[in-house]
Amino acid sequence: MSEDLKAKVLEAFCQRSKGEKKMFYIRDVVKWFPDEDRHAIQDVVKALIEEDAVKYWSSGSTTYLVLAECYPKE
Amino acid sequence: MAKSDTPLLDQLGGGKWPSFIDDMKQAAKKKPMAKDLLGQLELSYKEKIGHWKHGGIVGVKGYGGGVIGRYSDCPEKFPNVQAFHTLRVNHPTGWFYKTEALRNLCDVWDKHGSGLTNLHGSTGDIILLGTTTDHLQECFDDLSAKGFDLGGSGSALRTPSACVGPGRCEWACIDSLDTCYNITMSYQDEIHRPMFPYKFKIKVAACPNDCVASIARSDLAIIGTWKGDIPIDQKEVAAYAAAGLDIQKEVCNLCPTRCMVYNGRELKIYDEDCTRCMHCINLMPKALRPGPEKGATLLIGGKAPIVEGALLSWVIVPFMKLEPPYTELKDLIMKIIDWWSETARSRERIGELIKRVGMRTFLRAVGLPALPQMVKSPRTNPYVFFWPEDIKQKEVK
Q: How far is A62 from chain B (nearest CA, A)?
């Protein structure tokens, strides 16, 4: 896995989370990088989750991705 | 007589059928969490509004699912249900348990949760209702030590489930238990790390009776079936008639394709018209059996109404041999999931996607040929959409 891509994805999360929207579908994240392979982006996101930089948020039926520092308190 | 704290719930418990209220009251005697749950539910009935806030926390270290966060919106009134998370635990395939396993499960849940369970949830998982955030990891560790794992939730592959199949049923055309277990173990990453557009469910039924209702409840239904003629034992047919079964009325007239003829002495089946619904076999099990060559029919797109309406699934592979290591099946599953992940809108189930873009697009994407068995409503829908290049232009003189 490319460390460069990981840094880019994390940076994209930080930039996009500056607005009101803090929770993203994996599909949103893949769309931020139209030239990258979807599987590569998914692997990077999984790695970021392992590192606790990004977290899952789930309603039970749908899962979102949230930057750790933007994770809702409850 | 002391006035009840839960008069509305008491009404529910007073009916002639067993009520979950009685179970909750029993649990409330030893668990403050269950007592507050009763109180909050009573309030919901009184005010005609739910008092749960859904969503949030998703699991334990390394997992993206298996826990559904739930919080009370009135924790000042019911502090013991301030956090009341649900755990989904992967059930044993076919729901076979030793009593020891059930005792272990109950011990873990008495230690870490409310003691309330739902066996089983709609997807098939063991549902453990109500624990606090600080107990999640410990509860998971204890469950793991007893051989259990969390199931799927969120935008992931949900816990695959199967009927009891050859474990108890004489009609099993495939080993639904082995198929389901193999799929579960092969797709652990897809179950525990949600990366799909939405939920995806796989269910395995060993015969067309479809006791797990896979055709209606799963995105990918694997249903055991057979090739070849239904063997008929005419002596047993005569015995059923002699015992009072009205074969013409109960069997032939109720056959969906009317592919059976009974002349009062012998039964004849036009097998080429049979859709393998199992009706005749169910009624005359001693006289009729599934045919000799066993395999599975694969269907796609079943779902209950959430974002859009309910769909029944649609045949994509009329017959596939299903034997370990199920390479052909798994290759197809990965192609389907890849195409869906690439093409679907967020929160779009695969059935909805196929409905939106058309079956022919799906078939082309996953490399399946169009077959007559895929015509969904052959007697009511005359429309067939071809690719332009598939239509040979005829010269008009």
A: 4
Are B211 and B94 in contact by the 8 Å Cβ rule? The answer is no
Given a contact cutoff of 8 angstroms between Cβ atoms, the answer to whether B155 and B197 are in contact is yes
Q: What is the value of pTM for the model shown?
A: 0.93
**Each residue's pLDDT expressed in tens, for chain B with a length of 397 residues:** 467 789 999 999 888 888 999 999 999 999 999 999 999 999 999 999 999 987 777 678 889 999 999 999 999 999 999 999 999 999 999 999 999 999 999 999 999 999 999 999 989 999 999 999 999 999 999 999 999 999 999 999 999 999 999 999 999 999 999 999 999 999 999 999 999 999 999 999 999 999 999 999 999 999 999 999 999 999 999 999 999 999 999 999 999 999 999 999 999 999 999 999 999 999 999 999 999 999 999 999 999 988 788 999 999 999 999 999 999 999 999 999 999 999 999 999 999 999 999 999 999 999 999 888 888 776 676 666 778 887 776 666 6
Which one of B52, B54, B58 makes the best mutation probe of the A interface by having the most chain A beta carbons within 10 Å? B58
A30 → chain B, closest CA residue: B342
Q: What are phi and psi of B271, to 5 degrees?
A: -60, -25
Residue B121 sits at the chain A interface (C-beta within 8 Å): no
Find the angle CA(B171)-CA(B174)-CA(B178) to the nearest 5 degrees. 125
